[in-house]
């Protein structure tokens, strides 16, 4: 899904990031079956993804800091980003995981 990550630090917006990839069809894995050519959020099969580095120095203050990380996904029905909600639950006990380090 097309997602937007919203990063706030100490109450200020530090970044709004989307890593949508619509170039997966250009991957040299052509002639394969499957969904390798479909657009994805943040990666394409067979591609090297270096990750994303954000400089948030200007929002950091001495002592304690508060980091808020939000996720919104594109809704075709409303035509805007909406907060992510998994109404149906995860299939096969899949889990959502966020690692910040």
Automatic annotation (TrEMBL):
GO MF, one example: oxidoreductase activity, acting on paired donors, with incorporation or reduction of molecular oxygen, reduced ascorbate as one donor, and incorporation of one atom of oxygen
The protein, known as: Peptide-N-glycosidase F C-terminal domain-containing protein
UniProt keyword annotation of Protease present: no
UniProt xrefs under InterPro entries: Cu2_ascorb_mOase-like_C, PHM/PNGase_F_dom_sf
Gene3D superfamilies per UniProt: 2.60.120.230
Claim: Disulfide bond is one of the keywords in the record: yes
Entry keywords, A to Z: Disulfide bond
SUPFAM superfamilies reported in the protein's UniProt record: PHM/PNGase F
Domain of life: Eukaryota
């Amino acid at each position: 899904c097309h997602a937007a990550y919203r990063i706030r630090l100490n109450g200020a917006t530090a970044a709004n990031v989307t890593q949508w990839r619509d170039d997966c069809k250009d991957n040299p894995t052509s002639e394969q079956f499957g969904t390798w050519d479909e657009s994805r959020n943040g990666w394409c099969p067979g591609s090297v993804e270096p990750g994303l580095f954000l400089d948030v120095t200007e929002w950091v203050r001495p002592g304690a800091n508060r980091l808020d990380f939000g996720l919104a996904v594109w809704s075709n029905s409303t035509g805007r980003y909406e907060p992510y909600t998994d109404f149906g639950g995860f299939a096969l006990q899949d889990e959502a995981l966020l690692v910040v380090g």
